[in-house]
Structure formats: C-alpha cells, structure tokens
Amino acid sequence: MATAAYPPGGTFFSGLKKSFVDVPIDKENDNAIETSAFLEAAEALTTLFDVLGSVAFTPVKTDMLGNIKKVRERLLAAPADSENLQALVLNELKTKKHVATEGLLWLVRGLDFTARALRQNTATASEELSTSFRAAYSSTLKQHHSFMVKPIFSAAMSATPYRADFYNKLGSREAQDRVHSELRLWLSALETHVGVLRGFLDRKEAKW
Questions:
Q1: Which of 34, 38, 109, 90 is nearest to 207 (CA)?
Q2: CA 200, CA 197: separation in Å to the nearest integer?
Q3: Beta carbons of 50 and 17 less than 8 angstroms apart
C-alpha cells in the first residue's frame, strides 16, 4: 500500500525539500543548470518512489541516489569547476575521468523515465500507472539495461499502486485539483531540465 506523503493541509509537491520549479536555468550561459539545486531536486524526486509503495521500486530509487552521489562527490571535490552541471562535465572530462559524467547521464535517463511515465498518466485519465510506467521504461531505460537488470525494473513497473490510490497519497481527496495543478508545474519543469541535459550530453564535447 502506498504511503501518504504530504504535510497536513499540503500536497506531496508542496512538501518537497526542493522542486525542479526552483532550479534555475541560465539561458544567457548556454542553459547552465545549477549543480547543487538540481541534485537537491533530484533527491527530492526519489521520494516519489516511496509513494509508489512497493519494495520493488527500491532498486530504482537506489540506482538514482547512487548516480546523484557520483555527481555530488565531483561537486564537493572541485566546487569551483562544478557550479553548473555543464561545467562539471566538461571540467571532469578534462581530467580524463568520467565517473560523475556517467552518473549524470544515468540520472538524466532515470529522470526522463519518471517524467514520461507521469506525463503519459496525467494525459490519459483512465490509464493505470502500471501501463504508463511500462511504456516509459520501454522508451527510455530498457534499451540501456542488461538482461540481468531488466527483470528487476520490469517487476517494479508491475508493482505500481492503483491510479486512484496513488493520487490520493499525493494529497487529500479535497485537494486533488491542487495536486494535479502542482504536478503539472513540477512535471513541466522536470521535462525542461531533462531536455536541456539530454541535448547537452548528446554533444561531442560531453562524450568520453
């Protein structure tokens, strides 16, 4: 059973430690994304997997947190070279290492998976979460996973709660309009950040 995850009188999104809505993108500096704020928002997103309720999602959350840790360790080791994610990647690659860069690549894939699942589910009012998450997995992470990892993630896709139960865990029944309004804002911001980073990581200078 999914666990209630919102503060009294609030919603899951109003209770987040950091929202992607509040992570700045510097459009005058090649869409630079502040590293620390982004990692905090990504960390907050992983609590959504707790709301999904099944232990089957533990590997998904653990994988994402592990990639956040790799990026954060580079930030702490070289803060002046890592104020934004793009600078962090380019400066790390200059050292002939790519631990954080690879971590960011996998983190963005995980965020893209989450965003696509929720976008499909919010766009199709009658669709159950399992359908949305399976479709998102097939179009994002599945192609990058080994034969050993695929069954673990596939099990999680089938362990999602019923649609109504999930949304009721994001806010009270009386607050469902607010839940969906805040979800749309948060999801739009998440998709924007994922789009910027996917474009950047596809560039030649971001490869190793």
A1: 90
A2: 5
A3: no
